[in-house]
Amino acid sequence: MAKKAVASLQKGAGKGHAKVIKMVKSEKTGAYIFEESIVPNEEVQSHFKK
Fold first, then answer.
1. Domain range spanning residue 37?
2. Does residue 13 contact residue 40 with C-beta atoms inside 8 Å?
3. Is the pTM here over 0.70, yes or no?
4. Terminal Cα-to-Cα distance of the chain (whole angstroms)
5. Contact (Cβ atoms closer than 8 angstroms) between residue 24 and residue 32
6. DSSP letter for each residue of 2-48
7. Closest Cα to residue 45, out of 20, 16, 8, 11?
8. Stretch 39-43: mean pLDDT, rounded?
9. What does the alpha-carbon distance between residue 31 and residue 35 come to, in Å, rounded to a whole number?
10. What one-character DSSP code corresponds to residue 50?
11. Would residue 30 be called left, alpha or beta, if left means φ above 0 and alpha means ψ between -120 and 50 degrees?
12. Distance between CA atoms of 30 and 25, rounded to whole angstroms?
């Protein structure tokens, strides 16, 4: 699935966006989960500060 998303971002219109993966600790179980999202290149740093 990741390959498909990355391949679609590399085509002409997607070069201004990046796929980011953030590790977050679950409040219910205490285990870590991974959240994936696609954000504009300018907002990558602010995405991780949230």
1. 2-49
2. no
3. no
4. 25
5. yes
6. HHHHHHHHTSGGGGGEEEEEEEEE-TTT--EEEEEEEEEGGGHHHHH
7. 20
8. 88
9. 13
10. -
11. left
12. 6
